[in-house]
Known about the structure:
Elements: H1 2-16, E1 23-27, E2 32-35, E3 37-41, E4 44-49, E5 52-57, E6 61-66, H2 85-94, H3 99-109, H4 130-135, H5 144-161, H6 166-175, H7 177-183, H8 190-213
Helix pairs in contact: 2-5, 3-8, 5-6, 6-7, 6-8
Amino acid sequence: MRLTRTALLLPLLLLVAPALRAEYVVLRSGLRLRITGYQLVGDEYHLQMAGGKVEIAAKEVVAIEPEDTFGPPATVQPDPQPLYRDLVEAAAKRYNMDADLISSVIAVESNFDPKAVSRKNARGLMQLLPETAVQLGVKNIDDPAENIDAGTRYLRDLLQTYNNDLALALAAYNAGPDKVQLYGRVPPFAETISYVRRVKRGYEKSKSEASKKAPATKTSAANPPAADAPANNPAASVPSTKTPTAKPLAAPAAGTAAAPFPAPPGAALPFTSAPGAAAPPTSPPQ
């Protein structure tokens, strides 16, 4: 009687079973049941299915097969592009930056969450502070396009300021240019040191994976490689992963307002501040 009731329920259970990776129980009748678990208790199989539990006499079970032993082969999907890749590439092209570097910063800053908010109220994909966003001309800090554009421009200006020293630029992005100016190097904050290492590690990994996928190129005498890439062009040359010891930056004279960071001759500051105001960091140490 129990087997009869079970046989009546089987078609309904099969209809509601979801397409999950599981196993199949093959019955003598030829019916194949998708199960998510089973247990042999005495002379009965207790089967766990999407629609509930079913008990079947062990003698009625011919075999239990893993799902991957039959059926069409799985379709291999191409590697998905990182989130917001189109916006990142557009901003990278606009400011002559490396898109992989921008993606690495976003991954550490917000893990690609456009609604991320830190305890210091840094917001969005690139974790801009509201006051920094205003100085960068951002109208909607939560808009992914505006957030990425402003963050990319800000990081570009920092790289130019620190002569393409990636470690110093990232430290300034995290802790603020005033802290880099104060210490003359990566500030000795655990969060900032960890932040610089994580971004650089992610950046190096992305470049390593890209080099493995890219076909080898042959260099001919008629088309030799460029002798030197522009020093302020992270898109043309990967910034050094070694952090050189930076010379302490000169302190301003007494009574003189300090600029957000010292800019090299001819380099434009990323934004202007009120007299005496230091540029706020994008995501200061927690």
